[in-house]
Amino acid sequence: MSVLNRINAKLDGMAPGDREIGRYIVDNPDQMLRLSSAALAAEIGRSQSSVVKFSQKLGYASYQELKLAVSEAKAQEWQVPAGVIHGSIEVGDSYQVILKKLIGSKLLSIQRTVAANSERIISRTLELLDVARRIHLVGVGASSLVARDFSYKLMKLGRNVLHDSDSHIQMANVSTLGPGDVLFALSYSGASIETLRIAELASKRGTTVIAVTGLHDNPLSRVADICLYTIADEERARSSSITARDAQLTLTDLLFILLVQKQPDANEYVHNSEVAVSVLKAERSS
User: Fold this and answer.
1) pLDDT of 234-257, one tens digit each?
2) Three-state SS for 83?
3) Pairwise CA distance, residues 253 & 111, whole Å
4) What is the sign of the dihedral through the CA atoms of 261, 215, 25 and 234?
5) Which of 53, 96, 214, 274 counts the most CB atoms within 10 A of its CB?
6) Does 97 fall in a domain?
7) What is the distance between the alpha carbons of residues 92 and 80, in angstroms, rounded to a whole number?
8) Looking at the structure, do residues 127 and 184 belong to the same domain, yes or no?
9) Is 59 in the same domain as 138?
């Protein structure tokens, strides 16, 4: 994924000095590309060695390698569609401006989320879901809504799925899981206590834990066997969980579509589901 997205996602967990360097790079990538390590250090009042060490902590051998990565990220930068504004929603914004900013935030979150997850990790997740004996979906708040939506989709394919919005019932269900089962846990913060405790119990029972969480280091990501990452734009959207939910739905919808492609009798299952529901719709309209 883009080094700028990676730095931005890790800012909150950085030491103050590193955070200052990272914030400058994220906010001023074009200027950074024109500065030497010494010049960047002078610009933000840090030492040259701290800039070089910052580069190395990100996995680059030198500051020059970091500059090259930032240059490549800028070249591939997603362009906001015409008529869409990407910026923080303010109290005095008009209806049209709010609409354009909201759309911009949603699109950017989805694009960054897709970029943050490699095809290899998506394919591995798909394999685990495909062969799972049982799939337990867990999440609280808005993440619970995404978990429920994904559970309905998986049920359409005939998968053995467990989901309940009550965390006590979720914990009881997880106590029955074991090797061969999958826990699919959603939490953008990765710190939701209910989701974390359920994931810890699942892991102790030998269940494969797949986490859909933020890119920052968090407790859930440390418990999980596999992490899918979501990148939200909540600060700009100014409303809790809006873009985090969109990012989660993007990943679960992608996994569902890939499972449909992979499962030979998927279309038959989906058709049978549609026929069953159509009977109820016909009775309601009569």
Assistant:
1) 554 445 578 889 999 999 999 999
2) coil
3) 14
4) positive
5) 214
6) no
7) 22
8) yes
9) no
